Amino acid sequence: MNFQIARFGSRLFGTGLDKIRNIGIIAHIDAGKTTTTERMLYYSGSISKLGDVDQGDTVTDYLETERNRGITIQSAAVTIPWNKYKINLIDTPGHSDFTFEVIRSLRVLDGVVTILDAVAGVEAQTEKVWKQAKDMNIPSIVYINKMDRDGANFNMTVRQIVSKLATRVVLCNIPYFVNDLKTQSHRFVGVVDIFEGTLLKYHENDDGNDVQVIPLNELSEFKDSEQVNQDVMKLREAAIETLGEFDDRIVDSYLETEDYMKVPTYILHEALAKATISQDVVPIFCGSSFKNIGVQPLMDGVSLYLPNPGEAQKPSVYSPVASVPVKIDPKSGCLINNNKNLCVAFAFKVITHPTRGLLTFVRVYSGILKSNSKVINTQTGDKFNIGKLMVMHGDKPHDVDQLGVGNIGVISINVENKRISTGDTLVCHTLKKSADGLHKNEKRLKLLPIEVPPPMFSVSLQPMTAGDRRGLDQSLNTLLMEDPSLHVHVDEDSGQTILSGMGELHLDIATTRLRDDLGARMEIGKVMINYKETILKPTTPVAKSIEDSAFKKGHFEITLSLDSFQGKPEDTGLIRKDSEGAVLLNDNNLVIFEQDCEPDFILERVKRVSRGDQDWDLPMTMENIQNTILSSIAASLQVGGPVAGLSMHSMIVRVHKWEIPQDFDKISSLVTLIRQAISTSIGQLSEKQTTLMEPIMDVAVHVGDSDLGTVSQDLSTARAAQVHSIDDELDSTSSEKLYWAKDLAENIPLPQDPADLASGRHSSPISGRKVVKAITPLREMMGYLPKLKSLTRGHGSYDMVYSGMQRVSPERLKVILDE
C-alpha cells in the first residue's frame, strides 16, 4: 500500500492563508533536526533522494563547514508542499553557541516542532529553546525521535516533557515494537495512531514510502493485539478527558454514547488544534527519522495542529509618530493600521549567495510584496527598488512573482549601496508597488527588532601582509552582515582586529569561514574572554564645539556627561521607564537625551509637523539625526577605557545639549565632536576610578546523588561559584508549575513500554538526579565539561546561560590583568 497517497493525499501547494504553516525545527544538538527535515523534503516529493548528515549531502546543511563537521551552523529555509498545505520550514542549529540563529528564526515563525532524543530525553538545550519559543508565545508539537536506538524510552521521555517543560500533553501516536527472537530484543517498526485507531507498520530497510496501514479491529493475527487495543483505549480516553476541558463539544459527544471510541475523530483534531494554539496542550508524536519511520504522521500533525498566519500571534508594531492598530483576521491575516493595501515585511536574515549576490530573508506580515516594488526601509529611511522575489530550497532560490501575507521568502536589491540588515522593517503599497499613497505614520512604523545576545569570547585577527588588510575587512563586513551576533573592533594600541562571538565554537566556525569560504589571509590569535571596562564615578559635563565655514547659520556643538550602573539590563529599568529619551545600545550602554536638548529650530519644526502645520522639509529626519548621534556614541565607547583599552560597558551617556547649523546637509562634524567629548570625559578619570567587568553565567549542573558532593565542592572552590540551590531534577521547574507537573508526570496514562518491562518498573523522570544551580564567572567555566565528565564518570551534564556583566573585585582585577 502506498502510504503517501492513501493516507496523506496529493502533494499540492495551497494558496489560501489557512493552508500556510510557518514552522521551525528546534532541539538539543544531535536530536535529529536535519535528518527529520530531509525526510520531510523527501516524502513531500521536493527531493528524489534521501540525504544523510554523515554523508554531507543534505539540503539544509549546505555550507562546506556544516557538511565537514556534521552539524547545523546557520538556519536554513525550505518550502514543502504537503496534502494541499504549504509548509515554510526553518531548520535551526542545536548548539548553544548559535542561539542567535534560533532567536531570529523564532521571531518570524508561527509554530515549532520540538525534537527529542528518545534515549537522552529532555536535555539542557531543549529546555532553553523551549523557553525561547514560549517567551515568544509560539505553540509547539513534540516529536520523540530515535525510537529505534538501544536505550530508547518513550514513557520516560513523555514524563520528562510534562515535568521539565511543565506542560500537559496528548499522545497522538505511540511506538510499536516486534520481538526479535534472534537478539531477544524489541525492534521498533511502526507507530499506532491513537485517533484513527490504526497501526502504521513500516517495512524494514525501506525508504518509508510503503507502509502497511492496519485497523485495530484487524490486529488479531498479532500476538500483542490485545495489549495494543488496551493502550489505544486508555490513551484515547485520556486525550478526551484532557481536551474536554477546552472544548465542550467533546464532552457533549461523549455523553451521547458514553463510549470514548465513538467520539468523532474530526472533533478531536479540531479540539487539539485549538488547545495547541492556545498553548494549553502539546501533541506528542514519535518515530525514527533515520530509519524512515513516523515522519509522515508528524507532517500531518504540523498541518492539523499548528496555527496558520490567521491564527498566530499578532506582531508588535510601533511608530514614533503615533500608535498603530494591529489586528488578525482569520481570512486575510494581519491588518496593520486598518490599511489592507499596506505591505509590511520584516527582514530576519541576510546571506551572500554565490550566484545571486546579497539576499535578504523576509516574513510578509501584511499585504502583498511584489517583485520590483519600491520600498521604504523604515529603520534607515532609505527608499529603493527591490529586485526579484524568491523562495529558498536550502541554498537554491526559486523565483516567484510575489510573496503574499503570511509567507516567508527572499528578496534581492537592485540598487548599489542600499542594504537591508537583520531586524529592518520594509513597507510599501501593495497596489502601487511603492510607498506612494501610504500615510506618514505607515512610512515610519517598525516591527519589534531582534535582540542580539552579547558576545562572550574574542579572538585577534592580523592580516598576513599589509596588502591583505582590505580583503580581511571586506570578508569581515560580509560575515557581520550575515551574523549580527558577531562583533568587530580594532584595538587602538596594537592595531589588531578583534572578533567577538557567542562561544569558542562560534568563533572557530567564523574564522574558518573567513579563511576558507571568504578567502581572508590572516593570522588568528588565541580565544579570549570578552572583558569590558566601566567607570566608578560620574564625570562632569563636557562641552565641545566647532565652527564649519561651509555653513552660515550656526555651528556644531554637543554637551554630554558619563555615568554607569552595575551591569544587568534590568538595572536600567527605572531610567528607561521614566525617561522617554532613553535608548539602550549594545554592551548595555544607555543614552539619555535630556529634555529639550535638541536645537531650537528642530524643536519648533517637530512641534509644527506634529500639529500638521507643515511637512518635514529638512534634509535628514529627526530620527536619522538621532540615529547618527547614537551610532557615534556607540563607536566612541568601543574605543576603550584607561585600564586595558577595552570597550566600555554599562555606561550612561547623558546628552545635555546638541546643536547643528540650520542649513546643514550632513552632520559629520557632530560625529567628530561626540568622539572628542567622550574621549575627554573618560580622560578625566584615573585608573582607580575605572575597573573591568567580566561575564557572569547562570549554571545548572545535572548529576547523580552519588556525585553531588564532589561536584558542589568543585563549583565552590575551583569555579568560584556561588551555589544558590540544590534540588531534585524535577524540582528545578518553576514553583508555580512544580506541584501539578510533578503529580501529572508520575500519573499520566502511558502505553506498555519495552523499556519499562526490561527494568521491571515504570521509568521515573526523577530517577535520583540532582540539579545544582550557581552563578559563576565565565573565566572559571572554560574547559569545564571534561572536568565534569571526569568527576561524574561521564554521567554529568551542564547548561550555562549568560546572566550579565559584573564588576571584578580588586583581587580578581590583578589576576585578570596579569594574564
UniProtKB/TrEMBL annotation:
It holds the Pfam family GTP_EFTU. It is found in: Mitochondrion. GTP binds at residues 27-34, 91-95, 145-148. CDD domains: EF-G (cd01886), EFG_III (cd16262), EFG_mtEFG_C (cd03713). PROSITE patterns: G_TR_1 (PS00301), G_TR_2 (PS51722). GO terms for biological process: mitochondrial translation; regulation of mitochondrial membrane potential; ribosome disassembly. One of its GO terms (molecular function) is GTP binding. This is Ribosome-releasing factor 2, mitochondrial. The gene is MEF2.
